[in-house]
Write a structure and sequence with these properties.
The protein has 225 residues and is mostly beta strands. Helices cover 7% and strands 40% of the residues. The chain is built from two helices and eight strands, in the order H-H-E-E-E-E-E-E-E-E.
Length: 225
């Protein structure tokens, strides 16, 4: 009578083991003469051996690649503050306006503005002005945006005050706005004070700035902090 053999206990299943292997690389010989693709990839500086490159494309497109390019972005800002008008006391100008206020813009959360313009004695000539914008978020770093203003002929309110100016970035701008360029318009909204002299000698002034500014992207001192 055959004897029953004992059944061995079940063994646990083995989990697959992660065992990476290294394989030898195939030995290849470098070509002695540069190929067309190799020559194009290694030719960083000149255009010898190439019939068409980036410099040629830029020249055909009318782009000046000898200057550092600027990246343009939309710029808008709104300010308000008190203004005061007075005699200009300068040859060729009759009156001047000065305003100091605060506001915000698309490139900063809070900022201060100083704006002034002079009205020429010759009514056929446009008023000229200047504006200084100080972003409060970067005021300690020396960032300031200076705008040169020129009144649009015929854009006057009922009291004969200029309401629309065109602006360009002045080279005196610094820090974040160093070497920047741009242009746009400035709209002025007057609210004359009823307590001052007649003719709107003082009151509140709203400033609406819009346009585009091109920045280098390498002059912002706050990015290094």
């Amino acid at each position: 009578m055959p004897m029953d053999r004992p059944t061995p206990p079940p063994t646990p299943r083995r989990r697959p083991r992660f065992a990476p292997r290294c394989e030898r690389l195939e030995l290849r010989t470098v070509l002695s003469g540069p190929s067309a693709v190799g020559g194009a990839a290694l030719n960083f500086g000149g255009s010898s051996g190439l019939s068409f490159n980036a410099s040629t494309a830029a020249a055909l497109a009318g782009v000046d690649v000898s200057v550092f390019p600027l990246r343009y972005q939309k710029f808008t800002a709104r300010f308000q503050g008190n203004y005061l008008t007075a005699p200009a006391r300068l040859d060729g100008f009759s009156t001047m306006l000065y305003m100091n206020g605060g506001g915000m813009g698309s490139m900063f959360l809070h900022g201060n503005i100083q704006i002034a313009y002079y009205t020429p004695t010759d009514a056929t000539q446009p008023a000229v002005g200047r504006s200084l914008i100080l972003p409060k978020s970067a005021i300690q770093s020396g960032s300031q945006l200076v705008l040169d203003l020129q009144a649009v002929p015929g854009a006057l309110d009922k009291s004969g005050r200029p309401t629309t100016f065109t602006w360009t970035v002045d080279p005196a701008s610094s820090a974040q706005y160093t070497a920047s360029q741009g242009a746009g318009t400035v709209e002025l909204v007057y609210t004359p004070s009823t307590r001052g002299p007649r003719g709107g000698g003082s009151g509140r002034l709203g400033v609406i700035i819009s346009g585009q500014i091109g920045l280098t992207g390498t002059d912002d001192p706050l990015r290094g902090k």
